[in-house]
Write a structure and sequence with these properties.
Radius of gyration: 26 Å
CATH topology of the largest domain: Hypothetical protein af1432
CATH architecture of the largest domain: Orthogonal Bundle
Distance between the termini: 43 Å
Number of strands: 14
Structural class: alpha/beta
CATH superfamily of the largest domain: Hypothetical protein af1432
Strand content: 15-25%
Amino acid sequence: MRYSDHRAIIDIGSNSVRINIMGISKEGHFMLVDQAREKTRISAGMGEDKMIRPEAIERLLDTLQSFEQIMQVYQVSDVQALATAAIRQANNQQDVLQIVERKTPFSLTVLSEEEEATLGFLGSVNSLNESDALLVDLGGASTEFVLMRKRQMVQWGSIPYGAVTLSEKFANDRGAAISFIRSQLEKVDWLDEAKGLPVIGLGGSIRTLAKIDQIRRNWPLDNLHGYSVSAKNTAKYLDEISRAVGARIRRMRGVSSTRADILRIGIVPFEVIFERIAAPFVRISIQGIREGAFYREYLKLNGHHPILSDVADFSGKNLQRRMGVSEEHASYIEWLFLELYDQLEKDKLPGERRLLQMAARLHDIGMGVGYFTHHQHGLYLALHAGLLGFYEEERMFIALLIGLHRNRSLGRFSRPYSQWLGRDMMQRIERLGVLLSLAERLDRTESKTVESIEVTEQALLVKLKNAYRKNLLEISIESLRRPFAAKYEKEIILLR
C-alpha cells in the first residue's frame, strides 16, 4: 500500500545510526515502511578528550548520505534527525553539527539526557502493556533509566557510559567496570524505589539476551518486542557472557558479529541495575527513541494524549485500517461473539475477554491477501504485522482464534505454538473458535440480522429480524451444527 505522507526519524547513536520511514495515510493510519541501520561507532576513540575523530565523522556522513537516497524514494515530507550521547558529550560538537549541515541536507537536534530518556519512555510505553517497571536504555555512550508507575514517568536518570565507551575504558577488566558502574549508580538514590519491578530493556546489548533465550528455547516467533527473559535465564546468560573471552563470545548463538567485541563489558550497566533491583524478568522493547519521537508528533497532531491509555485498542484499530477491514462488520461480529461467549461459557479465564474482542475485530485482516485462505493469512498477520499491547502467548491465542474462524482445525498451522500454550489451552481455543465461526456465519450478508440470543438447557436460540430470510443462514451454519453440539451439547435453532 502506498501512503500519502512519509516521515523520517533518524537516531544517531554512539554505536549505530538508524532511520525509520513511517507511512501515514489520508485516513490517519500509519505503518513502518522502511528501516535501515549502519554501524558507525562514532564514539569510538573519543577518549578522555571527548573528541569525535575525523574517521568517525566520515562514517557518519557516508551513512547520512545513504539515508538521504532512501528518503528520496519515499519523497519524505519531514525528517527528525536526533543525536544522542556521543555528540552530546563531544567537545567538538559544534564542528560536527556544522560539517553535517554543510555536507548533507540534515540539521541535527542534540537531545539532552532527559529528552533522550523521555523519548525512549514514550516509544516503550506506547507499545507495551506494562504499568509499573524500570526502563533501562543501554546505548553506546550513555545509559538512561526511567521509573514508570501507572504508565507515567515519575523518575529518570542517566550515566554517561554505554556499551562502546565502557568497553573502551575498561578493555577486558570486567571487575573494574562493575565496580565503576556501581559507584556511578550509588548517586541515583531513587533507584531502590524500583526494587522488585520488571525491567523494560532497550538497546542492542540487552536485545542479545532475548535472542540467546529464543534460540535455546526454540521459540516459534522471531519478533523480540514484548518478549520476556526470566531472572534465572538472564543471570545464566550474563554469567556465560562474563566468562566468554575472545572468540568464544562470537560463537555464542544469538550474539551479533557487530556486537561481540563490546558485549562482555558493554552489558555491565544493565547487569548491575538488574541485580540491584532484583527484577523478576526483563521485557524487551525494540521501540525506543525513533518510535517515541514519532508517537510524540503523531499523537499530538491527531488529538491524542502523548501516553496511550490502551495500547491494544489503539494498535488494533490501526491494524484494522491498514488492512482495510470493515470496522462496522468487525464490531458486530465482536458483539455476537461476546454474546455467545457470555451465555455459553461458564468458566471464563481472567483477561480472556480482551483477547476475544481483538480476535473478533481482526478476524478478516487476511482478506487483503486472498479470500480462500484469509483465515491462515489472518493468523500470520496477527503474529507478525505489529499488533501491540499483548504479550507473546496472548498474541498466539488471538492468532489461533482468527485462524479457526473458517476452519474447525488448524492442523499443521498450530504446531509451532501448541507446545507453548499447552494441550488444555489449545482445546479451549478450538472450543472458542467454534463460537467465532458461528458469529461470522450469523452475519453472512453483513446486514446485522440477529436480534437476540438466548441459551436454554438444550438449545441456542437465535432470533432473527423479521425482514431476513433465514434459509440463507440455515445453509451458512449447517456445517457448524455438529461441532457446536460436540463442544456445547446444544442444538442451534434460528427463529423469526
